[in-house]
């Protein structure tokens, strides 16, 4: 028995010398894209509402995967037109619009054509601990044209946090990035390098260029999306400005710089 404390000490020392198992950081998501297609018909079997949804689902049963999936589902649902509050499912969204159409049909403001709603999703990035996607939403409930809207999310996978542009960019270079984006925007829409933007029909506040909240991030760079009416009339449609990744190297925080990116100048 007098050797027992000595043996315990050896075992403890051996255990301390063993390397701890590495912490596995989530690098990408396993995804499933389902589609939901519904039609509402009247008593004459005529379709009065078409409903089409691309439903993005994150696979995984642990708390982090479930939280990320819930975050994405909520964000996508909120990007759609709805006639009810606290919609928490696509079936509920469908029911709310169908109910509104039927209500109006019994009023003095009966719809004169069929309604429709659609949602599509495009994955921009799903690697190196980041997940970025863009969603397109369209709804027609009468009038001259459908309403269309683009949405996006960028999620840090290690903790499920939403990232905005300020999260990605070194704050010391925020103004430099804005000037670069304006230069690329002017070039894209064939505007003079300087001078008023609003004289060309834009609606920038105080005639100062600003970036939109909707953007995706991928190996090609940053892609910004202005929705109709955001910086101009509906006739201008959706407007875009892209910043190639090679231009971002000085702006991105080190933790968000992607690996194995070609440094070829996009203008070469």
TrEMBL record:
The lineage of its organism: Bacteria, Pseudomonadati, Bacteroidota, Flavobacteriia, Flavobacteriales. Residues 168-245 form the DUF3298 domain. PROSITE patterns: PROKAR_LIPOPROTEIN. Residues 62-148 form the Deacetylase PdaC domain. Pfam families: DUF3298, PdaC. Gene3D superfamilies: Fervidobacterium nodosum Rt17-B1 like (3.30.565.40), Heat-shock cognate protein, ATPase (3.90.640.20). This is DUF4163 domain-containing protein.
